[in-house]
TrEMBL record:
The keyword Glycosyltransferase is assigned to this record: yes
Domain Nucleoside phosphorylase: 42-280
Annotated phosphate binding sites: 48, 80, 102-104, 134, 222
E.C. number(s) listed in UniProt: 2.4.2.1
UniProt protein name: Purine nucleoside phosphorylase
Quaternary organization: Homotrimer.
GO BP: nucleoside metabolic process
Protein family membership: Belongs to the PNP/MTAP phosphorylase family.
Enzyme class: transferase
Lineage per the UniProt record: Bacteria, Bacillati, Actinomycetota, Actinomycetes, Micrococcales
Length: 282
């Protein structure tokens, strides 16, 4: 892993000479100053449909605009919040760092920007990260509003956040212990393989059929690159997808981002309570 001790020559993650881990340390320093605490315990990335659920985890103690923190940008997707929050986890004395948005690969800012939030969380001491997303479902019985635990992923971006000869084992990229814990909280949860496409266009019916043949159950435009970066940093990973719509070809209805947002609003209470209970147990 890159030495975090050296200060970055530049805070521009797109600059090849920039040390992305040093930028993460610089971001963590700002968050420490703004929150008044040296470390956080768990991080959460709230994807499409999950935005309201952070309120149920605990009391928000500090809210920070993304643009005030090195390496972060404004929310680029409707339904996402351009802030990060330091949240008290019940009365445990522990803190959660809750990101209201993520940088998607399709935004064109590069893989380093996509995983910057993960690396910043690791620099803050988080040993666990919960990655959520809104996705297309490949099973007709998984109706919009159904949360599904991610058991594994297929990364079709043709990119990796890992630079250089650093061979990270991804056998259990989504930590079995955390998946079992989530099922303890909600015994009705299914598991599935998440397939990340580049986006921002939705998948074609032929691509969805390909994903199914490859062993996929869910399709979307995020998460896998972040999970890889989290494992590189030694973090445990829990991934949960919210099925917001049937994938292309599964339903005759054309895909629409408004449908994604509506499904998220309808499922907000269940998803929020699920995350709150899981985070309390981690």
């Amino acid at each position: 892993m890159t030495d975090n001790a050296a200060a970055p020559r530049s805070l521009d993650l797109a600059d090849p000479a920039t040390d992305p881990f040093a930028v993460a340390e610089a971001a963590a320093a700002v968050i420490r100053e703004r929150t008044g605490v040296a470390t956080h315990d768990v991080a959460l990335v709230l994807g499409s449909g999950w935005g309201q659920t952070g309120d149920l985890i605990g009391e928000t103690l500090v809210e920070i605009d993304n643009t005030d923190v090195p390496g972060f940008g404004k929310a680029a997707v409707a339904g996402h919040s351009g802030t990060m929050r330091s949240v008290a986890i019940g009365d445990t004395g522990r803190r959660a760092l809750v990101y209201g948005t993520r940088t998607h690969f399709y935004e064109g800012r590069g893989v380093r920007a996509v995983v910057h939030g993960v690396r910043t969380a690791a620099a803050l001491g988080c040993r666990t990260i919960v990655l959520t997303n809104g996705c297309g479902g490949l099973h007709e019985e998984w109706l919009p509003g159904t949360p599904v635990i991610i058991s594994d992923h297929i990364n079709l971006t043709a990119h990796s956040p890992i630079e250089g000869a650093n061979f990270v084992d991804l056998t259990d990229v989504y930590t079995p212990r955390l998946r079992a814990l989530a099922r303890e909280v909600d015994g009705d949860l299914n598991e599935g393989v998440y397939v990340q496409f580049r986006g921002p266009h939705y998948e074609t019916p032929a691509e969805v059929r390909m994903a199914r043949v490859m062993g996929g159950d869910l399709v979307g435009m995020s998460t896998s690159l972040e999970a890889i970066a989290a494992r590189q940093s030694g973090m445990e990973v829990l991934g949960i997808s919210l099925v917001t719509n049937p994938a292309a070809g599964i339903s005759k209805t054309p895909l629409d981002h408004a449908e994604v947002l509506e499904a998220g609003r309808d499922a907000a209470d269940r998803c929020g309570r699920l995350l709150a209970a899981v985070v309390a147990k981690i």
